[in-house]
Amino acid sequence: MPNAIVVLNAGSSSIKFSLFIERGTSLEPDVRGLFEGIGTAARFVMKAPDGSVKAEKSWPEGAKLGHEEAFDFLVGHLRSELADDRLIGIGHRVVHGGSVYTHPIRVDPQILRVLETFSPLAPLHQPHNLLPIRRALERLPEVPQIACFDTSFHRTQPEVAQMYALPADLREAGIMRYGFHGLSYEYIAGMLPEVDQRAAQGKCIVLHLGNGASMCALSGGKSIAATMGFTAVEGLPMGTRSGSLDPGIILHLIDRHHMDTRRIEKLLYKESGLLGISGISSDMRTLLTSADPKAKLAVAYFLYRIGRELGSLTAALGGLDALVFTAGIGENSPAIRSGACRDAAWLGVEIDEKANVEGRRRISSDSSRIAVYVLPTNEEVMIARHTHTNVRIED
Ligand code: ADP
After folding, report:
1. Could you say which of 104, 307, 354, 359 would form a disulfide bridge with 386 (CB–CB 3.0 to 4.6 Å)?
2. Ligand 1 centroid, distance to 333 Cα (angstroms)
3. Residue 247: burial class (beta carbons within 10 Å; 0-12, 13-18, 19+)
């Protein structure tokens, strides 16, 4: 009777799920899928590892299927999928572990209450991440629930990299640089030893360029600096997020444009970034194929900020051995990789355009001083591994 692990990634109106089966010492991906439109017109789809659709169901607009009902439906479905396999744990992606949780943790009702106190730090993500944990603790009390945090990986950073120049009492109240996308960076750091020993042991910058985008400086595989800080809105411009701004702009928006907190939140998280600049789309594919000058400006700004952050993170590392591109844009866009590498020529980055267009793993030329890689990230696998380890430790 093989052991099974379920990985959940719950958002405001969706739950992504994947199932892993223990085979010897490895975890084999099994079915995966998505619940979307939760709260409006919900749709469930589950796919086999080969991508073929295994199950599908849609609910009409008026049905208003909530998160809890979606979770119950999902568990019921996975239970029949599991048949004789034993569900040994559920791993949850949780955006915020505060400064306390430097590792994944098994959640009990008391820890859940602590995690809820981090919700004001990530109001658009944390409450949704915690909903399935609460439901699972009620419905499946015998199954360990493991929370894996996007912030934990960055707790190895030196103190100066984790702080802002604010009075000490505010720093003690938790206003610090947490950093995000940690599960993705951890996965990439774990791959580096088999890809490039020098990069694994040396100085490497990972560019996680997706809808959410950030960059992380790794020294010997550990995070020493990152572009996202107190929230996942700092750093690079993203699909709809602004990235770094002068804090004075917020004061100006309040004073002169009479915006309140929620209005500014919507502006910074939903209306800015690539969408805000272009007025066309948050999707990089659309922008790259558009002839509209505003689309070109959005792409130019994205690359410009990548270039500046690259310089900053290289300074934090005191040098550079390798670059790694990952996530939706990083893995799939030769144009963005090419533009970013061109801007980094001063660092000794030289790209092999043929390898880049072909999407090979190593895309730097033989004479490049800096090795450049394209490595697909896999946050689900990272969560499954953490869940497996935590469940095993408790056995
Ligand atoms: P998320 O942060 O939501 O996980 P992803 O990592 O899936 O996002 O990345 C989504 C982004 O990747 C979108 O902006 C999409 O346009 C971009 N993307 C996907 N494929 C390509 C491609 N071939 N060329 C350029 N951009 C792409």
Report:
1. 104
2. 8
3. exposed
